[in-house]
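Hi everyone,

Forwarding the result from last night's run.
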Amino acid sequence: MHDMSVGRTVVTGGAGLIGSALVWALNCRGIENVLVVDRLDSSEKWKNLVPLRYADYMEADDFEQRVLDAPTTLGDIRTVFHLGACSATTELDARFLIRNNYEYTKNLANWAIDHGQRFVYASSAATYGALEENLSEECELRSLRPLNMYAYSKHLFDLYAREHGWHDRICGVKYFNIFGSNENHKGDMRSVVQKAYEQIRASGSVKLFKSYRSEFAHGHQERDFLYVKDAVAMTIHLAEVEASGLVNVGSGKAQTWLDLVRPIFSALDLPERIEFIEMPEMLRGKYQYSTCAQIGRLRASGYDDPITPLADAVSDYVKNYLVPDRRLGPAIP
């Protein structure tokens, strides 16, 4: 077992959705010797850091330079959660994504392996491309066809790590549809929960895309939704048990868009008003109607905690974070 209480922990992307939630989860365990790494831009993601307890903060480029040029000055680092990346599926600058998501990850992984540090990094379920069945880590990596440049940048590192034998020593987490507090800064990449909440508060109704496949009724398109609190608990577990290779992190259950939005109305004590609208033509040919993580490898690693039911997760998110406009903090377990 890897002892998380020993030495310093690095969390890159530490001001983002999953990164800040992971720092919160470490704080709840009494772990505060954390170096947060991110790029604090003109968004308000800095607010995610305000309630958290950590030892130091560094900008991502400065951190990488220290890793390359003067790693001993970073102190006794034992654990690295590399969650930082550009996660916008709409980003078109391929050169930027290669540098930011692929080359950066190679540099950090190589440093961590050389120094015997526990290294857990964020891959993505987006690397599965258009697959709607058998979303398993056992899929031959070379057979996968990511649909956007973000997913491809993640896929490239998965391939690189495997070809260099790194997957025997590091763990890549394939996150599915993660939602929860601390995503305010993500713009169009925010979860449907937050977008639907804002629609409902503004108009009393929510809009969902119609289905264009006869086997799926309107609103019955499926995703594997996972609350961010569960996602970070799983991530920390994988670090502690020294899991290696690629691991899916999801609920293991496909649920519909209706399953996702109905609890929002309930949490707000409002009647359900759902409107189905036309999907843009440009999306129809590549829209996935069903995704579900196979989480056998996660369970086999010893993770046996119950996963928060979707309705309970949405209710907690809405009532305790969206309505009061609150971020995750150690005082809220």
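Residues 8-180+225-250+295-300 form a domain with the Rossmann fold fold (CATH 3.40.50.720).

Cheers,
N.
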